[in-house]
Specification:
The protein has about 325 residues and is mainly α. It has helices at about 10-40, 40-45, 50-55, 60-75, 80-90, 95-115, 120-130, 135-145, 150, 175-185, 195-210, 225-230, 255-260, 310-320, 320-335, and strands at about 160, 165-170, 285-290, 305. It folds into three domains: about 10-155, no CATH class; about 190-235, no CATH class; about 255-325, Orthogonal Bundle (DNA Binding (I), subunit A), CATH 1.10.30. The chain is built from 15 helices and four strands. β1 (about 160) and β2 form a beta hairpin. α1 crosses α4 (about 60-75) and α3 (about 50-55) crosses α4. It starts with 7 loop residues before the first helix and ends with a helix. The model is unreliable at about 235-245 (pLDDT under 50). The structure holds zinc ion.
Length: about 325
């Protein structure tokens, strides 16, 4: 596009107008995101969650997707009058998307790490206070009011790609976590007296994968992790974790390993419209194509890997969404009582 024909004034005003429209579109997008979340429409299209949909489906960077989702989560629970006020502030640039999302992140972390649940009034008060503030000023404000700012304001992990085969990870560890790392070092010192943090985390990951991942192969581990597990693992660790009480073992560990191997340890849900395969690798569950409740058998042919959201979607298709939501809320109630 060639804009050389515009006068300076036209260019100046045109740019300003576009920014204003861009902000309004972003606010409008947040409401679409909210409705998308309510309907869980992303699941049918082969995405395991809203974040995966924003990144893989809409092409946002992980940071942009996070800012939009967190801002939407803050906005959706506010009283309607306040929603309008925040929308106006976002549209006019008095408040940035980045600060609104930082505020939501802050509320979530304060609840998790400080057991502090902010009231609507407190949230609205803070929204007022971040108006006109830069990102840096907003972070300083949150730091000053937090009971545990290391966790709630500073604890954003960082991952940076260094080369094709190497990444750098940075995170803030608490005193308690440092003590736990030190203790792991002490009890494994005979295998590796001075492990680097990378080696330490590799050992811990290896230990967890051996216990929890049916597809994990011993050959995948490095020499240091192999040496470590050889000396640390007790005979009882070789066995798989026992099912919890009231949990019926529908599938054997052998079958689980076969399903993982065939499905390449990922959710194989496919959107029939676009052919998009979910591919999620987190929290995988074995799903019976014909449910056990309807006589389905635990065979390789009848079993497949699903992420939690897609396992639920399959169940909703058979038993209905309302029935599944009732079933889940009953289980949550039972577990929390
Ligand atoms: Zn999935």
């Amino acid at each position: 596009m060639n804009l050389t024909h515009l006068s300076d004034l036209e260019l100046w005003n045109g740019t300003k107008e576009l920014v204003s429209k861009e902000r309004e579109m972003t606010t409008h997008f947040l409401w679409h995101l909210k409705e998308m979340e309510n309907r869980k429409l992303y699941r049918e299209r082969g995405f395991s969650n809203l974040f995966a949909y924003c990144v893989e489906g809409l092409g946002y960077t992980p940071g942009s997707a996070t800012r939009r989702i967190k801002s939407m989560k803050l906005l959706k629970n506010l009283p309607e009058l306040v929603q309008k006020k925040v929308e106006e502030a976002l549209n006019t640039g008095k408040v940035s998307l980045s600060n609104v999302s930082s505020l939501q992140h802050f509320f979530e972390k304060e609840k998790k790490f400080c057991d502090k649940e902010y009231t609507q009034t407190e949230k609205i008060d803070l929204l007022d206070k971040i108006e006109g503030k830069s990102q840096d000023q907003c972070q300083r404000l949150l730091f000053s009011i937090s009971q545990n700012p290391e966790k709630t304001v500073l604890s954003q992990d960082r991952e940076r790609i260094l080369s094709e085969t190497q990444s750098e990870i940075k995170f803030v560890a608490s005193d308690q976590q440092m003590k736990m790392f030190q203790r792991v070092r002490e009890i494994t010192a005979h295998a590796n007296p001075h492990p680097t943090y990378a080696e330490l985390f590799e050992m811990l990951a290896d230990f967890m994968l051996m216990k929890k991942d049916p597809a994990y192969k011993v050959t995948q581990k490095s020499h240091s992790a192999a040496e470590w597990t050889k000396t640390v693992r007790k005979p009882s660790d070789q066995s798989q974790p026992k099912p919890r009480q009231n949990e019926r073992p529908y599938t054997s560990k052998k079958l689980e390993r076969e399903v993982h191997a065939r499905d390449h340890s990922m959710c194989t849900f496919e959107d029939p419209l676009t052919g998009k395969i979910c591919g999620c690798k987190y929290g995988l569950e074995i799903d019976h194509a014909v449910p056990v409740a309807l006589g389905g058998e635990s065979t390789l042919q009848n079993c497949r890997l699903r992420c939690r959201p897609h396992n639920l979607l399959e169940a909703e298709r058979v038993f209905g969404r309302e029935k599944m939501e009732q079933h889940l809320s009953r289980n949550i109630g039972r577990n929390s009582s």
